[in-house]
Write a structure and sequence with these properties.
Keywords: Acyltransferase, Transferase. The protein is an alpha+beta fold. The chain has helices at residues 13-28, 34-46, 97-112, 126-134; strands at 3-7, 52-58, 61-73, 78-88, 116-119. It has a single domain (3-134), classed as Aminopeptidase, CATH 3.40.630. The protein has a five-stranded mixed beta sheet with strand order 1-2-3-4-5.
Length: 149
């Protein structure tokens, strides 16, 4: 069955929020607070400068999403588009849903003049790493550090 992608709408907030909760549990066994997630997802729609979501559909039913955010690179005088919050429902995995979402994001980034796409992946998530490599993405030579507040 064919997969289509589109820019997410506010009607998708409930799906996207639930998928974020599911993704955090499946990948990191991290429990996220649903009301905080819904507020965070809604904030993307409230402030387009934060980014946008793409939603994948199969037979008219939402089956996955990703979030695009922006990072300015002064070295390249352009934006990197970061792919985040990737989720595909279990029944649609291994059917090219992420590939379709990725290709859509890549095309939009190119048309917008972005300088590249980036994403991060859990170090133990080898399946996802193989998927990203299969799409032509390369592992970076940077480590990621954070300080949460």
């Amino acid at each position: 069955m064919s997969v289509t992608t589109r820019i997410a709408a506010r009607d998708d907030i409930a799906h996207i929020s639930q998928w974020n909760v599911s993704m955090a549990w499946e990948t990191e066994q991290k429990v996220l607070e649903p009301t905080v997630i819904e507020r965070g997802v809604t904030a993307v729609f409230d402030e387009p400068r934060r980014g946008f979501y793409l939603v994948a559909e199969r037979a008219g039913e939402p089956v996955g999403c990703l979030l695009v955010t922006y990072e300015w690179s002064d070295w390249r005088a352009g934006d990197f588009w970061w792919i985040q919050s990737v989720y595909v429902v279990e029944s649609a995995r291994r059917e090219g849903v992420f590939r379709q979402l990725y290709e859509d994001a890549k095309q939009r980034a190119s048309q917008a003049g972005a300088v590249g796409l980036r994403l991060y992946v859990e170090t133990e998530n080898e399946r996802a790493q193989r998927t990203y490599a299969g799409l032509g993405m390369e592992r970076c030579h940077y480590f990621m550090y954070e300080a949460e507040f």
